[in-house]
Amino acid sequence: MKRTIIFALFIVSILPAEAQLLWKISGNGLKKDSYLFVSHPLIPVAFLDSVPGLYKAYNSCGTVISEININTIDASAKLRRAASIPDYKTVADYVSVDTFNLVDKELRELLKIGLKEMSAMRPEIILDFYKAELFKQLTGISDDAQSDSYFQMAAVEMGKKVIGLEDIDKHISTLTNQKNIKDDTKILVSNVLHKDSLSKELLNLSRLYRKGKINDLHLLLQPHTNNAEQNNNTDMINNRVSDWLKKLPPVIYNKSCFITVDLKYAAGSNGLIEGLQKAGFKVKAVEKL
Q1: Which of 112, 203, 259, 282 could form a disulfide with 36 if both were Cys (CB 3.0 to 4.6 A apart)?
Q2: First and final CA of the chain: distance in angstroms?
Q3: Distance CA 18, CA 233 (A)
C-alpha cells in the first residue's frame, strides 16, 4: 500500500499540464460533449488520480464505451477458450526442448508458474502475463487492477450503460485470425530470454505514457522492420479503427459518452483522435475541467 501511494505521488509530480491522455469531443452537431481516454494495459488504477479532469469527465457521462463489453454473460468463458492454442497443440510444438526449458525457468522465477503449466496457452497471452508481472516488479506496484478495465467495472457499480465497439465473437476472431503461433512463440522466447532489454522497454513505454506523450509512444511502438506479420497487425489496427469511426458518431450524437481505448488505436495519423477530427469533430486535449 505504501509503495502504491509513493508511486501515485511520483506520477502526479511528473505529469505535465499538456499531457495528452484525456480528450474532449465536441462540435459537428453533437448535443453533448463526450470524452476519450487513452489507456495502457500496464498502468495501474492508482495512476488515474493524476490525470487532470479525468473523474469529473467520467462522472459527467452516462455511457462508457470500450473495445468490448467484458461484463456480458458469456464474455469471460469465450475469452478463456480463445486463450488456448488451437488443434490441441502447445508451445512445446514450436520450440526446441532446450529453449522450452530455458523459458520455463525464467517464467517460473518471475510468475511462480512455468511454461510447462501454461504451454497450452497462446504465447502472446503468456507474454502479456510476463510483462505485467515484470512491470509490477520494476515499479514496486502490487495493484492487480488495470486502468483499462477499471472504467467498465466502475460503470457497472454506478449504473452506467456499457457499450462495446465490437461484440466478443468479432473481437476474438479479429485478434486470433491475425496471429501466427510460430511467430508469436519466437516473440515470447526473445522477450523472456532478453529480460534486461524488455525491462528497459517497459520502463520507457511507461515513462512516455505517464507524461502523456502518446504520439512519441506511438512512434516508438511502430515496427522497425517490414514483414508480413507486422503488416497484418498494422492492417488489423487500421481496420478496427475504421470500423469504430463508423460506429461512434451515432452513439455519441445525443448523449455524453466516456470512451476508452488502447493507445495503439487512439494515436497516430490513422488513430481514433485524428479520425474523429477528420470527420469534423473538435477533439481537444483536456488540461483541466
Answers
A1: 259
A2: 29
A3: 30
Please give the Cα distance from 195 to 103 (Å, whole number).
11
Cell representation of residue 140: 514496486
Give the least confident one: 22-31, 90-99, 143-152, 156-165.
143-152
pTM summary value: 0.85
Query: Phi, psi at residue 112, to the nearest 5°?
Result: 65, 15
Rounded mean pLDDT of 171-185?
81
Q: Return the domain boundaries, the chain.
A: 88-145+166-223
The model's confidence at residue 9, banded by pLDDT at 50, 70 and 90, is very low
Query: Mapped to the 3 state alphabet, what secondary structure does the chain carry?
Result: CHHHHHHHHHHHHHCCCCCCCEEEEECCCCCCCEEEEEECCCCEHHHHHHCCCHHHHHHCCCEEEECCCCCCCCHHHHHHHHCECCCCCCHHHCCCHHHHHHHHHHHHHHHCCCHHHHCCECHHHHHHHHHHHHHHHHHCCCCCCEHHHHHHHHHHHHCCEEEECCCHHHHHHHHHHCCCHHHHHHHHHHHHHCHHHHHHHHHHHHHHHHCCCHHHHHHHHCCCCCCHHHHHHHHHHHHHHHHHHHHHHHHHCCCCEEEEEEHHHHCCCCCHHHHHHHCCCEEEECCCC
